[in-house]
Design brief:
heterodimer; A: 2 domains; six-stranded mixed sheet; four-stranded antiparallel sheet; B: mainly alpha; ABC transporter involved in vitamin B12 uptake, BtuC; two-stranded antiparallel ribbon; 2 strands
């Protein structure tokens, strides 16, 4: 049933290779992501999952290959341009603005949407004031959605880890992204927190139609919520398909469980 | 009592000037996580530019009015600080994105020496004066309350007024505007800020501009009190204890820290000096800073740093 809502290819990754000196992080990786899809990248430790995400996000520039986003092809771009095109991300090791409140953190995600100039903002003058209020409403909606109303004014540095992860997600959502890159959103969480996070990811996908690219370590979660899965091992792609196809893929089983020689 | 109050006011005024310099440090640190060692050099550079332009403009244009010359000099010096900000970003910071704090600190150390040298090469290394026409005559206050009243320097009062206005404007800018929020975001995490589309380079130019203007105001006030000379650059050293006391991330902290140190210096010199042979003024601030480092390293108003293990 879910298959029907999937749209055209929104993000197409072709022959990406990335090396740090002599270390090959990624070798000739190709895959695509379709609109409204939940697409996961999995693999054992050091498989190159985060490197892949950082290439899409413009943090790393791959030596070979192209990334096509909504029909536009790039071989070089930076994080800011990527953000302007409507791609948001969360971080594996939290990268929140720790001194700021939950509200300000999420509001900062609206940065690209704020149009009024700095002078008007400072004076809280008519249009700037109205704009701020409009963004604030949107942010309140996200806060409700993530069920963190009680922590609005708390500095994020003081929140427990699971909640910080939610704020990280909230900040990304505030950008109203078309594609959301999630770097191990469930790393270090307990079972309950994992379930909450899975629910939020599914809801985001459902309610806002956001395309999601998810990196995860935990096979169980990924298989439950993904439409299609890419499997990486030692920087190479060893599997690609629906969760069921991947689960039965010989190479994948070998990579995860080891093999007897 | 009158004498005590006079000493107190004297200390507050001196403290206000420390605060202004400290403010420059805090601004850049808050907004870019860089401890800008070059703040003192920027004060010197801005003050030199202002002093010299105020001299040159009447000579170039033949306009005699001191007000016109001063305003034009202030604007020109401000413009120069904008150019400095842009060059610092373009030539130095841009290439050091996502580097360690210590690397950035060393870079600003380099900028310090460069600006000190360049400033004196362009503008000369004599002692110049800035005369913005502040009234020098002291006034008597509270003379109905105590006998003899309290002697207050008018110049100091005006300087305090300017500093106060500047601080209010900056607080509004940081706390109430979206750009201020973006600045704080950049201070906390470069990479995350970029990922939500905050243009790091533009933000850096903005903070260095703001810090440049603060340096200019500080330089102008110091300069009109004491004259513009190389020793202004070492004023920055006086501001270090202030930020340790107030907290590196707090604008109000910089102000209150400056006042505490200004007052502490003067009062201890006057009242403790006779017992230990004087000279307390010189080391008081540093000893106070040392005590704070031992017992409250985040300062009075700084954010406590909590690291997850």
């Amino acid at each position: 049933m879910k298959e029907r809502k999937l749209g055209d290819v929104i993000l197409d990754v072709q022959n990406i290779s990335l090396a740090f000196g002599g270390v090959k992080a990624l070798t000739d990786i190709s895959f695509n992501v379709r609109e409204h899809e939940i697409r996961s990248i999995i693999g054992p430790n050091g498989a190159g999952k985060s490197s892949m995400l950082n290439c899409i996000n413009g943090v790393y520039t791959p030596q070979h290959g192209t990334i096509t986003f909504r029909g536009q092809t790039f071989d070089h771009m930076n994080s800011r341009q990527v953000a302007e095109m409507g791609v948001a991300r969360t971080f594996q090791n939290l990268a929140l603005f720790k001194g700021m409140s939950v509200l300000d953190n999420i509001m900062s995600g609206r940065n690209l949407k704020i149009k009024s100039n700095i002078l008007l903002q400072a004076l809280r003058f008519g249009p700037a004031e109205r704009e701020e209020i409009r963004h604030r409403e949107f942010v309140e909606h996200i806060i409700d959605f993530l069920e963190i109303q009680a922590y609005r004014k708390t500095p994020v540095g003081q929140l427990p880890y699971g909640l910080q992860k939610r704020v990280d997600l909230g900040r990304a959502l505030a950008m109203e992204p078309q594609v959301l890159l999630l770097d191990e959103p469930m790393a270090g969480m307990n079972v309950e927190e994992k379930q909450d996070m899975s629910r939020f990811i599914l809801d985001v996908n459902d309610e806002f139609g956001t395309t999601i690219v998810l990196i995860e370590h935990d096979m169980g979660v990924v298989m439950d919520i993904s439409d299609r899965v890419v499997v990486l091992d030692y920087g190479k792609k060893i599997g690609d398909g629906t969760p069921d196809e991947v689960r039965n893929n010989e190479d994948v089983i070998r990579a995860y469980l080891g093999t007897s020689h | 009592m009158g004498f005590f109050l006079e000493t107190l006011f004297g200390g507050l005024m001196a403290g206000m000037l420390y605060s202004l310099v400290a403010l420059g440090f805090v601004l850049i640190f808050k907004a870019s996580g860089v401890f800008n060692f070059a703040q003192g050099a920027m004060v010197l550079f801005a003050a030199l530019a202002m002093a010299r332009f105020a001299e040159w403009i009447p000579a170039w244009t033949g306009i005699e009015s001191r007000l016109v010359a001063n305003v034009a000099a202030f604007v020109l010096a401000g413009a120069i600080m904008f150019v400095v900000a842009w060059l610092v970003e373009f030539l130095v910071l841009r290439h050091l994105v996502n580097q360690e704090g210590a690397t950035l600190l060393m870079a600003t150390l380099g900028i310090t020496y460069f600006m000190e040298g360049l400033g004196q090469t362009i503008f000369g290394s004599d002692i110049y004066k800035i005369d913005i026409g502040m009234p020098k005559d002291p006034i008597f206050a509270f003379d109905t309350v105590f006998e003899g009243g309290v002697l207050i320097n008018q110049e100091d009062l005006i300087a305090a007024g300017i500093a106060a206005v500047l601080v209010v404007l900056l607080s509004l800018f940081f706390q109430k505007t979206a750009t201020g929020r973006a600045l704080r975001a950049v201070a906390d995490d470069h990479q995350a800020a970029q990922s939500i589309g905050i243009p790091l380079n533009r933000i850096w130019v903005i903070v260095w501009c703001v810090a440049g203007v603060v340096a200019l105001v500080a330089g102008m006030i110091w300069g009109s009190k004491l004259g513009v000379q190389f020793s202004l650059a070492t004023v920055a050293l006086r501001a270090l204890p202030v930020i340790i006391l107030g907290g590196l991330t707090s604008v109000p902290g910089a102000i209150i820290g400056g006042l505490i140190i200004g007052v502490g210096e003067k009062l201890s010199e006057v009242y403790l000096g006779p017992y230990v042979g004087g000279g307390i003024e010189i080391w008081f601030a540093y000893v106070l800073a040392l005590v704070f480092l031992l017992f409250r390293p985040q300062g009075l108003f700084g954010e406590k740093i909590i690291d997850r293990v």
